Amino acid sequence: MKRLLLIAYYFPPCGGAAVQRWLRLLPILVKAGFDVTVITTQDGDYILQDESLLQKIPDEVHVFRTFTPTINKFWKMISSNKASLPYGSLSTNKSMSLPKRLLYWLRLNLIIPDLRVIWNPFAKKKAIQLFNENNYDWVITSGPPHSTHLIGLYLKNRYHVKWLADFRDPWTEIIYLKIEKQNRLIKSLNKRLEEKVVRNADINLVVSKSIAQQLPDGNKVVFYNGFDFDQFQSIKYNNSGKFRIKYIGQITEGQDIYSLIEFIAKHTQENDINDIEFIIVGTKNLKPMSYTIPIKHIDYQPHDKALAEMVNCEILILMINKYPNNQGMLTTRLFEYIAARTPVLCFGPLDGEAASIINDSNAGFVSENLNEDVWNYIYKGYTNWKKNVNQRNIHDVSKWSVQKQSGSLIDILNQ
After folding, report:
1. How far, in whole angstroms, is CA 264 from its chain's centroid?
2. 374: enclosing H helix or E strand
3. How confident is the model over 210-225, as pLDDT tens digits?
4. Closest CA to 341 of 278, 284, 393, 292
5. Is the peptide bond before 121 cis (omega within 30 degrees of 0)?
6. Does any domain span residue 91?
7. Looking at per-residue confidence, does 139 or 294 come out higher?
8. Same domain, 170 and 248
9. pLDDT at 9
10. Is residue 19 assigned to a domain?
């Protein structure tokens, strides 16, 4: 039985997309005969919590939680509205308090790779203790936060263990570092860390081809997020009497949901349509909105309920963040959208991997901008819905399931 040590900052009860990749894989790895140990955080800085995900961790997995320094309490002290830490952005504006702007500046120009690096000494201490008690065949580090990969680098050098670095997002090419101007020295040092990690890892597992190309030279293998077929078996589509357009997940920098809502509201008014509603599920800190179509805001939902939200609507919105070289951006949500079989309206590059996967799966329509083709797609779906035409995707999408894809990972770990 091969032993795996997975080190991940984000792990249940943390919620959201960051935990789904390895949470889906753990039961498959256990079933394949691997002995899995996890080092994670105790009360980390999580933007979302989902206690229900704890039940999905196989009993056979050994989970160790270490002390985790956090700055969320400090952030709430200096935040006028007691908001949690910002997510997916380092942008500042003049309306922010001076302490908040200073904290953003420090994070951008003095701290590399990321703020979560303050957890590394505690995770490293636990890893050393475990290595003194057991031998491990593989260390697996999951990023972001990419600071976690530095723990893998340390363990690789100290114990000469095989090391798999998993990249769910770019490192130096991540959206908020591309949008904001960073100190040249810090930028250069961050790039060197990235190069060192990718070069020394035995395997770099990457969520998309484009992100793999953006990373420095190293042994890279593309491994998509996928979805779990079993999670959708008991969910049935129900017609609510409204044509529901849904956005599910956090709205982050480079996603303009407000222009889309305004666009839809304008066209529905022009066409005298009064049974379309726009629903946003799970996004915090939405701006106040007043449009001519109903806007519903549903708070963050446990994962199983979020999947039911995906199934029970008529169009799902996917927005690829706008930034240079965003062709490789893929989210866990894309594959879950495909598994939900609800038509997907995606905004992103036509030559991007998300567009390729949607087209290959016959899952929806992709556009780079708001235009008449977008409205025509919505309106066609609406008129078919009015006629009770079944619009659920019947295309075979099984190749995107984690069950199908996991075979390549198991082959790697059995080396």
Report:
1. 26
2. helix 372-386
3. 899 999 999 999 999 9
4. 393
5. no
6. no
7. 139
8. no
9. 96
10. yes
pLDDT band at 79 (very low <50, low <70, confident <90, very high): low
Q: Domain check: are 143 and 51 in the same one?
A: yes
Helix (H, G, I), strand (E, B) or coil at 252: coil
The mean of the pLDDT values for the chain is 90
Q: What is the pLDDT of residues 84-110, one digit of tens each?
A: 555 555 555 555 666 666 676 676 777
**pLDDT tens digits, 267-280:** 999 999 999 999 99
Length of the chain: 415
pLDDT of residue 93: 55
The Cα–Cα gap between 290 and 261 comes to 10
Q: In what order do the strands lie in the sheet with 138-143?
A: 62-67, 35-42, 3-8, 138-143, 162-167, 203-206, 220-222
> What CATH number should be reported for the domain holding residue 176?
3.40.50.2000
Both 165 and 282 in one domain: the answer is no
Q: Give me the domain span that covers residue 309.
A: 230-398
Q: At what angle do helices 20-31 and 402-413 cross, to 10 degrees?
A: 70
Q: Which helix (H) or strand (E) is 364 found in, with range?
A: strand 364-367
Query: Minimal CA–CA distance to 41: which of 15, 67, 73, 20?
Result: 67
**Whether the model pTM is above 0.70:** yes
**How many domains does the structure of the chain reveal?**
2
On whether both 330 and 212 belong to a single domain, the answer is no
**Which residue has 């304008």 as its token pair?**
266
- The token pair at 50 is 């989902």
Tell me how far apart the alpha carbons of residues 412 and 415 are, in angstroms, rounded to a whole number: 5
What gap in Å lies between CA 261 and CA 258, rounded to an integer?
Answer: 5
Q: Is 285 exposed, middle or buried (0-12, 13-18, 19+ CB in 10 A)?
A: exposed
